[in-house]
Design goal:
With 190 residues, this protein is mainly alpha-helical. The chain is 73% helix and 2% strand. A hairpin with a 2-residue loop joins β1 and β2.
Length: 190
Amino acid sequence: MSKSRAKKKQRRRARSATGAGRPEAGAQERAAARAQARARTPAATASTDRAAPEARRRPSRLEVRAGVPRPDAIWAPFPLTEIGMAVGIALFALGFFADAPGLFLAGVGVLVVVVAELCLREHLSGFRSHSLLLGLLPVAVVHLGIVYASGTSWRGPLAMAVDLALAGALAWWLQRRFVVAQGRARIGAR
């Protein structure tokens, strides 16, 4: 027997036990419970129940994760992040299909900035951990900067070991910051 069936049976037994002697007892108790619930709400009228369906719905997994709400950007009502992603994808695709490396790199740059901002905002608010991505990103940028600034090729097993060690240390530190931020957000949500 599944868990849901067992729970249904248990509820039926509880209902039949409360209203065994009186057939109306269950209905009276439910009506009393509804009246108490209405009394607890500030303005329990039929118009407010119809006007605020959003207040009654449960937030989705995309809005709340582990008890922490999704953080809003500073520019919250304006969809700057989404516009940036659309522009970055358009430049990326245009540069790829038109064989224009400048447009391609511009698209990659816009996407990196927009995704890094979104990941950093979610990570530091305790909503979702992006430790590995946020740890690898600055290491990759520094590595590219060293290669392009010095003109030498910094590659091979030593370069890989140094980059991975730096990214791992940064990801470990970021994961600790995430746990602290998530704890603060859960306490604040209560």
